[in-house]
Amino acid sequence: MSIPQKLYKKIQELIPIACVDIIIKKGEKFLLVKRKNKPAKGQWFFVGGRIMKGELLEEAAFRKVKEETGLDIILKKIIGVDQTIFKKGPFDNGVHTINIVFLAEVKGKDEVNLDSQSVDYKWFRQIDNNWHPYIRKFLKLTGFK
After folding, report:
1. Rounded to 5 degrees, what are φ and ψ at 123?
2. Domain encompassing residue 75
3. Contact by Cβ (8 Å): 40, 134
């Protein structure tokens, strides 16, 4: 279900948004996408996004991965819960999200088909110290260095 833009802007101004983020593994590599939109525009980030009302956390994780990458995944576990706060969101207002972070493995083909949310993707082996602290934190929690 899509939320009208005017209403979503008002929601973002008033309350945190519940989201899922998914660390997708393939062997010793992990997938990040380069964001096209605010917040974190131009940064390498996890696949993920908001949870819809009535949607289970796991359902949201499967949906976001399929929408954003076309990949099928096997969810392994929840790594943790955190929050992100950005001064500039899609409406140039602040964005506060509460994020449930999953670890998942690719199931079957690993061919990525990006949607309009991202401009690029890459399978990485190591953490880059220039990435957002939130990304570095959860990659380290999953054992990447």
Report:
1. -90, 120
2. 5-141
3. no
Amino acid letter, 120: D
Q: Whose CA is closest to 81, among 109, 57, 100, 107?
A: 100
Q: What is the CATH number of the domain that holds 69?
A: 3.90.79.10
| Number of domains making up the chain | 1
What value does the CA radius of gyration of the chain take, rounded to a whole number of Å?
Answer: 15
Sign of CA dihedral 97, 98, 103, 107: negative
Query: Residue 101's closest CA among 54, 145, 64?
Result: 64
Q: What is the pLDDT along the chain (145 residues), one digit of tens a residue?
A: 678 989 988 889 899 999 999 999 999 999 999 999 999 999 999 999 999 999 999 999 999 999 999 999 999 999 999 999 999 888 888 899 999 999 999 998 889 999 999 999 999 999 999 999 999 999 999 999 9
Residue-wise over 48-57: b if at least 16 C-beta within 10 A, else e? bbebeeebee
